[in-house]
Design brief:
The protein is of the alpha+beta class. Strands 1-2-4-3 form a 4-stranded mixed sheet, with helices on both faces. The mean pLDDT is 90. Keywords: RNA-binding. Pfam families: CRS1_YhbY (PF01985). GO terms for molecular function: RNA binding.
Length: 97
């Protein structure tokens, strides 16, 4: 599933008031962090994740790994915070066409 620009804009506006639910620190991307992200996506569908890494390349690799492992869609990345979306079985967010 790919998001259109209109859908991404809608999700960005929905995520604007959200605070990061999961924070990735010195231990990096572990199985426990992955489990927390999975739980948060199942419950909320749209979440923010904060990655506390020093360089951009490390942040980018962690973000790509999270998206690959959770099968979520990237909505936006601003600095160390990125927003991801994955629809759950009981749809909470209705995307525009």
């Amino acid at each position: 599933m790919n998001l259109s620009n209109k859908q991404k804009q809608y999700l960005k506006s929905e995520a604007h008031h959200l605070k990061p639910i999961v924070m990735i620190g010195a231990n990096g991307f572990t199985e426990g962090v992955l489990a927390e992200i999975e739980n948060a996506l199942n419950f909320h569908e749209l979440i923010k994740v904060k990655v506390s890494a020093e360089d951009r390349e490390t942040k980018k690799l962690i973000c790509e790994a999270i998206i690959r492992e959770t099968k979520a869609l990237a909505v936006q990345q601003v600095g160390s915070i990125f927003t991801i979306y994955r629809p759950s079985e009981d749809k909470k967010i209705t995307l525009p066409k």
